[in-house]
Design brief:
Elements lengths: L14 E11 L5 E10 L5 E8 L28 H4 L5 E6 L15 H15 L4 E10 L1 H12 L4 E7 L5 H6 E2 L2 E2 L1 H16 L15 H7 L5 H5 L11 E6 L7 H10 L5 E6 L5 H4 L1 H16 L11 E4 L11 E4 L8 E9 L12 E4 L7 E6 L14 H4 L8 E4 L7 E15 L5 E9 L8 E2 L5 E2 L2 E6 L31 E14 L4 E7 L21 E6 L6 E7 L3
Parallel strand pairs: 3-4, 3-5, 5-6, 6-9, 9-10, 10-11, 14-16
Antiparallel strand pairs: 1-2, 2-4, 7-8, 11-12, 13-14, 13-25, 15-24, 16-23, 17-22, 17-24, 17-25, 18-21, 18-23, 19-20
Helix pairs in contact: 2-3
Length: about 575
């Protein structure tokens, strides 16, 4: 059979037309401003790749030297490069969201209103005389999350989406991890976005831009509700062809949206891809761009690129410690049908230690017959003390190692763990609530961590999970044995020192633990290694409290692992 993968749009010598500050009318009379980059093809009509964001269409992105796409005057953060797409017969359209960049109006980032505006912009662009009427959406992060929302509104001209590393559930993926407020990233993001608008060049033409009370609303709505459903993906409404693209390093913001999107979107045609590396290198790589081009060539131009002939799941298989991409492997489903769901029980062996390399117990294959427990401080004291009113209580000086750790025996052979994970944990506390922070680590034969490349280029562990014990209530209809789905709609407070069973969702991962390596499980009352910048608010119920983990006997605390046998 002939290889169709090379059957894609080839660059042609079009003249580039750049239209700045194009006025796009919304249904309520508001005008949004956009930049349009398109090839001059005379009477020829072109499909468009679109995005909407608060990242200011006029703000030039100067990429790092090692990016496979080179700098040009039209590059923008987390969006497609017109100098690559326009010669291949595509228009690129960037829209400033309402109240951001040059667009007037009340700022509502990542909202239902923004989705409605995106719908209107898509339909207006589709009717331009130069447009073929076919629209696709593509972009990273914010530019991906917005795709889930607009796809649920089903604009007629939207023919395909490719949300690249995009959170989908604003409550579970971004704002509240396991019910714990993810203050670190969103607070910095909001402050920086405000500064870019008010302290940079933008103020000269939109002095009231990005005026919103996002952080207050996020903290005011600390349980799941219609507030969050309005600004999150509606899977049953997403019927457009969908290629959901995740990053194994995105276990604190985006990855869950991409795997949940692939599983739950109502689209007849859908694919899943998960890669490694930073937030932007894979997107701008030659390999990444060819996947993008083959997808949109097929759905927007009707070119037989063979993209649907390939298995629907494409995974980069991590083997540990590489700074460069790993080889991809195709699969037919997610999670993998041949998964051996394996329980590793927590066996408590010694009292907690403050030594950063200490291990309090082992991960074993059989439930320990004897019951055991480990008690540790929930406070995490810093040089400013514990949970004072000042922000210094969370930032002033490290608190050293907190919590407890368990390790597997050295791997007798290379062992692949690929898929979603779950920690079933019996806990109690002297307080009315308890935070459970879980970190999985790959420990080499020398006892040191084997790190991966995070989305910001930082060293990261294998994956993480979190749960606030009062949020342990499950949604029985949506929960799976390997992927608990917490309702987050009421609090089940703890009674002092009374054990309860919690199922902690650990975000999906892929790692081949080499022979001789060990899997380490950290259970902590606050953020562990490799968390920054995705850190959390450590609330006052931690102050002075003691938390306890129970395991063995009638309390089966175990880590559920997706072990993949060799093909």
């Amino acid at each position: 059979m002939a290889d169709k993968s090379a059957n894609v749009s080839k660059p042609r010598d079009y003249k580039l037309i750049v239209e700045k500050d194009v006025r796009i009318p919304m249904r309520d009379g508001t005008i949004l401003y956009a930049d349009v980059f398109r090839p001059d093809g005379g009477a020829e009509r072109f499909p468009a790749i679109m995005n909407i964001s608060v990242y200011q269409k006029d703000k030039l992105w100067i990429p790092p030297d090692d990016l496979e796409e080179k700098p040009n005057p039209y590059m923008a953060w987390e969006t497609v490069n017109p100098m690559w797409w326009c010669p291949r017969g595509y228009a690129c359209v960037r829209v400033d969201a309402r109240g951001a960049g040059k667009s007037p109006g009340q700022s509502e980032p990542s909202s239902y209103q923004e989705a409605v505006d995106f719908y209107d912009a898509i339909e207006w662009i589709a009717k331009r005389p130069w447009c073929s009427g076919s629209i696709g959406t593509l972009g990273i992060s914010y530019h991906a999350s917005s795709q889930w929302r607009v796809a649920g509104l089903q604009p007629p001209s939207l023919k395909a989406i490719m949300p690249w590393e995009g959170r989908a559930d604003q409550y579970r993926d971004q704002a509240y991890h396991g019910g714990i407020f993810a203050a670190g990233f969103i607070s910095n993001w909001h402050t920086t976005a405000t500064a870019h608008h008010l302290l940079g060049r933008t103020r000269s033409y939109n002095p009231d831009a990005f005026n919103n009370n996002l952080l207050w609303h996020y903290m005011r709505n600390d349980l799941d509700s219609e507030f969050w459903r309005q600004c999150s993906a509606r899977w049953d409404k997403i019927t457009v062809p969908t290629w959901s693209v995740g990053n194994w390093g995105g276990f604190s913001l985006h990855l869950r949206g991409n795997t949940e999107g692939y599983l739950n979107a109502a689209a007849k045609h859908k694919k899943l891809r998960v890669h490694t590396g930073t937030h932007f290198h894979p997107f701008h790589s030659e390999e990444g761009r060819m996947d993008q081009l083959r997808w949109f060539d097929y759905w927007l131009k009707g070119i037989g690129t063979g993209i649907l002939d390939e298995p629907p799941v494409k995974l980069e298989i991590r083997t540990g410690g590489s700074q460069k991409p790993y080889p991809f492997r195709f699969e037919n489903e997610w999670p993998l049908a041949r998964t051996q769901w394996t329980r590793m029980y927590l066996k408590i062996e010694r009292e907690p230690s403050s030594d950063e390399h200490a291990v309090e117990g082992r991960l074993v294959s059989a439930l320990p017959t004897a019951a055991g427990k480990l008690t540790y401080s929930a406070g995490g004291a810093t040089r400013a003390g514990v949970a004072s009113a000042s922000s210094l209580a969370t930032t002033h000086g490290g608190s050293g190692r907190t919590g407890v750790s368990f390790e597997s025996a050295p791997m007798a052979e290379a062992t692949e763990i690929t898929g979603p994970l779950m920690l079933n944990l019996w806990v109690s506390s002297t307080s009315e609530d308890m935070d459970i922070f879980v970190t999985l680590r790959n420990i080499g034969p020398d006892g040191s961590d084997v790190w991966e490349v995070g989305q910001h280029g930082q060293p990261i562990p294998v994956t993480k999970g979190t749960l606030r014990a009062s949020h342990r209530k499950l949604d029985s209809e949506r929960s799976l044995p390997y992927r608990p789905y917490h309702a987050h709609n009421e609090r089940w407070w703890l009674a002092p020192n009374e054990p309860v069973e919690c199922q902690v969702e650990i975000w999906p991962t892929c790692m081949v633990f080499k022979k001789g390596h060990k899997l380490r499980l950290d259970i902590q009352p606050r953020d562990g290694v490799g968390s920054a910048p995705y850190t959390h608010y450590h609330a006052d119920y931690n102050a002075g409290a003691e938390n306890t983990i129970h395991s063995g006997g009638d309390k089966a605390s175990y880590l559920l692992l997706p072990v993949i046998p060799p093909k």
